[in-house]
Amino acid sequence: MLDYRTFVEKGSRPNTPPVFAVYILGLVCEWLINEVGGLHAILERNTAKAAKVYGVIDSSGGFYKGHACPASRSLMNVTFRLPSEDLEATFIKNAALEGLTDLKGHRSVGGIRASIYNAMPEEGVEALCQFMNDFKSSHG
C-alpha cells in the first residue's frame, strides 16, 4: 500500500494509504530518535523498567507469581498472580486508588497485567513497584 509503483501501475489510487497511521508513525519515530536516543536507548530503558517489576515479583517469596518463565518474560507486559483471586481484586482496586489503572489481567488468563510500553515513564514503574511492595507488606 505504501509502494508508489502500485499507484503508478494502476494509473490511480487503488486505495487510500493509511495517512493518519503513517503520520503517527512519523511522530513516534521522531520521539524515539530525538528524545529517547534511538533503538538501543529504548531497549535499555525498557529492559531496566521490566527488571524493576520482575525484581519485585522474584523477591516476593512467592506472594507474586509470574506467568512466564524468566527466559520468556515480556519487556512490555508483566503478568503475575497473587495468592487468591480475592486478593487480586483488592490489589486492582487499591492500585486504582493510587492512580495505577488498567492492571486487570486478560479475561482468558486473569491475574494482573502491568503494561509498561515505550511511553510509560520510569516514574510510573517505580510507583507500581512501591505499591507492590507496600501491598505485600500489608497483605502478605
Task: Describe the structure in your own words.
- By secondary structure, this protein is mainly alpha-helical.
- The protein has two domains: 1-36; 38-139, Aspartate Aminotransferase, domain 1 (Alpha-Beta Complex).
- 54% of the residues lie in helices and 8% in strands.
- The chain has a three-stranded antiparallel sheet.
- The longest helix is centred in the middle third of the chain and has 20 residues, at 39-58.
- The model has no long low-confidence stretch (mean pLDDT 93).
Q: In terms of topology, how is this protein built?
A:
Blueprint: H1 4-10, H2 19-36, H3 39-58, E1 65-66, E2 77-81, H4 85-97, E3 112-115, H5 122-139
Antiparallel strand pairs: 1-2, 2-3
Helix pairs in contact: 3-5
Cofactor: pyridoxal 5'-phosphate
GO molecular function: O-phospho-L-serine:2-oxoglutarate aminotransferase activity; pyridoxal phosphate binding
EC number: 2.6.1.52
Spatial arrangement of strands, main beta sheet:
1-2-3
Give the termini distance in whole angstroms: 54 Å
Overall morphology: elongated
The ordered H/E elements are: HHHEEHEH
Summary of the model, kept short:
Pathway: Amino-acid biosynthesis; L-serine biosynthesis; L-serine from 3-phospho-D-glycerate: step 2/3. This protein is mainly α and 140 residues long.
